[in-house]
Design goal:
This is SET domain-containing protein. InterPro entries: SET_dom (IPR001214), SET_dom_sf (IPR046341), SET_domain_protein (IPR053185). The chain is globular and about 55 Å long. The protein has eight helices and twelve strands. Strand 10 and strand 11 form a beta hairpin. It has two domains: 215 residues, no CATH class; 108 residues, Beta-clip-like, CATH 2.170.270.10. A five-stranded mixed sheet has the order 1-2-6-8-7. Strands 3-4-12-9 form a four-stranded mixed sheet, with no helix packed on it. Strands 5-11-10 form a three-stranded antiparallel sheet, with no helix packed on it. By secondary structure, it is α+β, with helices and mostly antiparallel strands. The N and C termini lie far apart (49 Å). The protein binds zinc ion. Zinc ion binds next to helix 7.
Length: 329
């Protein structure tokens, strides 16, 4: 049996993509995500490798005509594509970038039928944020002006959108342990994500690889590790009335926001413009750090810290420092 994302009803095993809410065209089946490629280019650690003796099948992603009506494709086929503009027709200089996507054919059909799609990204009139060093973290985002509750702080198209869950095969050797199955799933996911990653332009690839990765030691490849660390939920991509297929997005700027259990922003996906908008949840002073919730912040403090473990830090926000906050929540 072939392996891949192609038919999720056959998924035997899946693990969370680790993101907060949940997660051109012809594929070169010969392309690999070998260690030297990423190490030389981006200086990041490569995945741990497959269980001994296990060989992956060829990738099942096909390069499809980007102009083909997705409704004519098999239901739930996973596509790698760029939206809203196919790479084959690059956007004019100065216009909004496209997002590299791995998504189901039904999701693409839903996107293309959205009234008004594709609209330009609705940007706020002025830049009112900056990226810079953050206390206790590498980087964070900060306001550079007073921002009122409800205002849009920034808008951007994601670098990459992909399923927030990983899917496995039906046919791992019966001798495999759970850890080996998980490793095979991680390596396969990396290969699929790389097909989408390869569609980005060089500047976006560099921006993606510059993001934090808290999954350097668990067998995740670099593209997957960065997605698990930085993924923002793109809920509206799930087709209404169907089983949830959470999608996760990695953004150049919104993914820079650090977590707080008392966040001052929220990010919402806008389908017509295929972009995320970061809203202020309350009035924000100039110079204040912008924060976003990576997890369910209504959970008790102990559960929140547990849920944050994969991100590799301990939250010290006001709620986590206040022993009485659980009762209020
Ligand atoms: Zn906290």
């Amino acid at each position: 049996m072939k392996r891949g994302f192609l038919n999720n009803t056959k998924a035997r095993a899946k693990i969370s993509g680790g993101d907060s809410e949940a997660p051109k065209k012809k594929t070169e089946s010969g392309s690999t995500s070998g260690p030297s490629y990423y190490k030389a280019k981006y200086g990041v650690v490569e995945h741990a490798g497959l269980p001994e003796g296990y060989k992956l099948a060829d990738l099942d992603v096909k390069e499809l005509d980007p102009h083909r009506d997705p409704r004519t494709l098999p239901e739930n086929l996973f596509l790698v594509t760029s939206l809203p503009i196919p790479l084959e027709a690059p956007a004019a200089a100065g216009t909004d970038r496209a997002t590299a996507c791995m998504l189901q054919s039904t999701t693409k059909a839903q996107i293309l039928s959205t009234p008004g799609f594709p609209r330009p990204v609705p940007r706020p009139p002025a830049v009112r944020h900056r990226i810079g060093p953050a206390p206790g973290m590498d980087l964070g985002a900060f306001s550079t002006a007073r921002i009122q509750r409800g205002e849009v702080i920034l808008s951007e198209r994601a670098l990459l959108i992909a399923p927030g869950h990983l899917f496995g095969d039906d046919d791992y050797p019966s001798s495999f342990s759970e850890a080996q199955i998980q490793q095979a799933i991680l390596v396969q996911a990396e290969q699929y994500l790389k097909v989408a990653f390869d569609r980005m332009d060089p500047e976006d690839k560099t921006a993606y690889m510059a993001l934090a990765n808290s999954h350097l030691q668990d067998g995740s490849g670099p593209i997957l590790g960065i997605m698990r660390t930085n993924g923002v939920g793109a809920g509206p991509l799930t087709r209404p009335g169907t089983p949830p297929m959470p999608y996760s997005a990695v953004c150049k700027e919104i993914s820079r926001l650090n977590h707080s259990c008392c966040p001052n922003t929220t990010a919402l996906f806008d389908m017509p413009s295929f972009s995320f908008r970061l809203f202020a949840l309350r009035d924000i002073a100039s110079g204040e750090e912008l924060t976003y919730p990576y997890i369910d912040v209504t959970a008790p403090a102990a559960e929140r810290q547990k849920a944050l473990e994969p991100y590799g830090f301990r939250c010290t926000c006001p709620a986590c420092r206040d022993p009485t906050s659980d009762a209020r929540r």
